[in-house]
Amino acid sequence: MQKKIQYVTYILYLNTQLFTFCKAEQLIKEFGSSHQFHLGLEANFLSRTAFNHTALTSENSNAGDYPQDSFAYTSMKIFGNYTWNGLIVSAGYFGGVAYTYNGWYPFMDDQNVALRNGSAVEFHRFLFYRAFLGYDNESWFVRLGRFILEDDDWLKSSVQGGQVIYKNNNFLIKFFALSHLTTAFGAWVWDFRNGAIPTGIYHAALQYHTKSEKYEFRIRPFVYYVPNYYVIPGFNSHFFFHTQSNLTWHTYLVFSYEFYLQNANLATPLFPLVPLGNNAASLYISQELEFLQHYKVNIGFYKNFGHFNGILGMYGNPAGASIYDNSFFASLWLNDFLAKDSQSILLNFSANIVKNTILGLFYRGTWNQRSIENIVGITASYDWTKNITFRAILAWYLDETKAGYNAKFWIPIAQVPESLRQGITNLNPNRNLADRSYLMFNIIAKI
What is the signed CA dihedral for 401, 405, 408, 410, rounded to 10 degrees? Predict the structure, then answer.
């Protein structure tokens, strides 16, 4: 079996699909029936323009303002595969240039020379994102080296390590052991590193599935383990039902529970200064209805119990939903979808009523102790040719930061050590309502 790379997600609106790198593959040479060479090439341009360009500093961010990120990047991926009787040798290179032209928060540039405060910073990413040996047939899927992690519950990234999947008509068994990850493709790519998996991450899952012409059911218990840091057992399930009246029903659920181990507080968390160490969990429920062959309606709920995403949120998301309301551009989530004790409602309606065009409406409401976020928007995707796609999101985004929370911190300012407050003295500012609306535009060309 020649297994294609897919991102199969049961997503509540189209944002994830708009900015996920796709795999394009072209058979360029074949010798008999067993020797084949494939070549893939993809160019990607993405820009995000924030409508509110208020300059933020360490002084006025005390009101609860967030950075209003505006950025653009251009990148290219090229890879080649050689296959012979199921054996695969693959190598792929990624390169690109990114530029942030408005915003404020500290991050390291490529030269690692200093912390910058935001405007007009250019930097680059170049890496072999895939270089692996593999084996594929109807039952086995094996990868060793650098590869894009497939068929995972919520890790979405290019990884370094090994993966084995075995499946038959009713069961699937999956193992992987990874030493390093990148950030997920579809956001800006950070180099292979192990910050969220300091001693490597290990995973095992056993899946049962059954299907007929009208329905399909899957349930998969799993466990993730990072020695001395955390262990995450959980399960996901998917129920699919199709009627003769062109109605299709999808129910998707994933639940994970996180036991923090003795070294958890030694890790670098996604959300600064929010203590790790207490056990946590996450729950994601998605209900989708497809009808009349062209329309989809989806409603979902995501709940984060405790600080579940404190470490793993850098590289994946337990809901299977990447939210591009603000930027993952500089390795920071600038919304509270993955924050401590947050809950979110997500709604989506999409229609394919014009040839090669998908239009959608979406809403996300997130609330927790720190802030209340409401975002509503329009998505569009147009396939100009089979190899060139245009995609866009126009979003109206209001964020109310509650009193006592600074834009840089996910805990009350009074709990932040004085040495880290950078001159902030007002520990109980008024609530602040900020407009974080934006336009995202994406062009993908591939062969």
Answer: -100
| Per-residue pLDDT of the chain in tens (447 residues, 90 and over written 9) | 333 322 222 222 233 333 333 333 444 444 445 788 888 999 989 888 888 766 655 556 566 666 666 778 888 999 999 999 999 999 999 888 877 766 554 443 343 333 344 455 666 778 899 999 999 999 999 999 999 887 777 777 889 999 999 999 999 999 999 999 887 555 567 778 887 788 999 999 999 999 988 899 999 999 999 999 999 999 999 999 988 778 899 999 999 999 999 988 887 777 767 777 788 999 999 999 998 888 999 999 999 999 888 877 766 665 555 455 544 444 445 578 888 899 999 999 999 988 899 999 999 999 988 889 999 999 999 999 999 999 999 999 888 888 777 766 777 888 888 887 777 777 777 788 888 888 988 999 988
Q: What is the pTM of this model?
A: 0.84
The encoded tokens of residue 135 equal 């084996």
Q: Is residue 150 within 8 Å of 178, Cβ to Cβ?
A: no
Question: Is-contact 240 217, C-beta < 8 A?
Answer: yes
Contact, 181 vs 157, CB < 8 A? Answer: yes
Per residue, what are the HEC states of the chain?
Answer: CCCCCCCCCCCCCCHHHHCCCCCCCEEEEEECCCEEEEEEEEEEEEEEEECCCCCCCCCHHHHCCCCCCEEEEEEEEEEEEEEECCEEEEEEEEEEEEEEEECCCCCECCCCCCECCCCCEEEEEEEEEEEEEEEECCCEEEEEEEEECCCCCCECCEEEEEEEEEECCCEEEEEEEEEEECCCECECCCCCECCCCCCCEEEEEEEEEEECCCEEEEEEEEEEEECCCEEEEEEEEEEEEECCCCEEEEEEEEEEEEEECCCHHHCCCCCCCCCCCCCEEEEEEEEEEEECCCEEEEEEEEEEECCCCCCHHHCECCCCCCCCCCCCCCCCCCCCCCCCCCEEEEEEEEEEEECCEEEEEEEEEEECCCEEEEEEEEEEEEECCCCEEEEEEEEEEEEEECCCECCCCCCEHHHCCHHHCCCCCCCCCCCEEEECCEEEEEEEEEC
